[in-house]
Amino acid sequence: MLFFYCMENHKKYRAIAIDGVSSSGKSTMAKRLAKTLGYTYIDTGAMYRAVTWFFLEKHVNIEDEQEVSVTLDKINISFRLIEGKNVCFINGQNAEPFIRSMEVSNFVSQVAAISSVRKKMVFLQQEIGKTTHVVMDGRDIGTVVFPDADVKIFVNSPARLRAERRWLEMKETNPDITVDEIENNLNMRDYIDSTREDSPLKQAEDALLIDNTLLNVEEQYKAALDYIHQKL
Ligand code: DC
After folding, report:
1. What is residue 15's three-state secondary structure?
2. Is the separation of the CB atoms in 51 and 107 below 8 Å?
3. Which residue is closest in CA terms to ligand 1's atom 6?
């Protein structure tokens, strides 16, 4: 019995689940944690964004289940390591240059609420977790994708603060954008993400909550790393 238990444990790949509200600094923290631990970082938001971009390109009517299903069958999402970064590809094309626009940001939560889209993305995420130690960030990683993740962390802070922090990052490349516009987008996404029927955004019962209102990037990272070291 003990022998089989050890074999199971030996085969298991580790998963660190990072969930939280939009633009809360999850990905900055998750990327760094993955680097420190030697794990693979998977940005699941990029997967939903890539599908959204494809739907926009193809003018898919998301109310039409058949059209959504046929289009999903034509989508192949993968990750490739480029210059040390794990980059999301859609149908062999680097998705990154297209998926961070406001157009995608304004539509992605509606696409991510579609069950057939989630089913496909969750399957892919679980497949990756079968062969790799991962730090995965998203909205449902600790609750749905890896309910038995080795470590779960949930990140939160007020929308206004997140919008101000995001504005500082965006103002160079998008000088016309305002804090209000970003805050409205974040509030809208958090609302749709947390009220959808299928795997809504919520903190797993066994997740550590990090509220980063009073924490800088470094302090947040340290809090997460300390917790991971305690758990592993
Ligand atoms: O992390 P992000 O802001 O790039 O995610 C984009 C959208 O995708 C977000 O509004 C919610 C959705 N999402 C999701 O529903 N489940 C995930 N695991 C990751 C993202």
Report:
1. strand
2. no
3. 45
Matching residue, tokens 């679980």: 126
Ligand 1: lining residues by beta carbon, under 6 Å? 22, 44-45, 48-49, 108-109, 112, 138-141, 189, 193
Pocket test for ligand 1, best of 22, 139, 184, 198 (most atoms within 8 A of CB): 139
Domain boundaries, the chain: 15-231
pLDDT along the chain (232 residues), means of 10: 46 90 95 97 98 98 97 97 93 96 92 97 97 97 97 97 94 91 94 95 97 96 98 94
CATH class of 15-231: alpha beta
Residue 6 is predicted with a pLDDT of 43
198 Cα: distance to centroid of ligand 1 (angstroms): 13
Query: Which of these, 193, 228, 224, 188, lies nearest to 29 by C-alpha position?
Result: 224
DSSP 156-171: E--HHHHHHHHHHHHT
What is residue 3's predicted lDDT score, i.e. its pLDDT?
Answer: 47
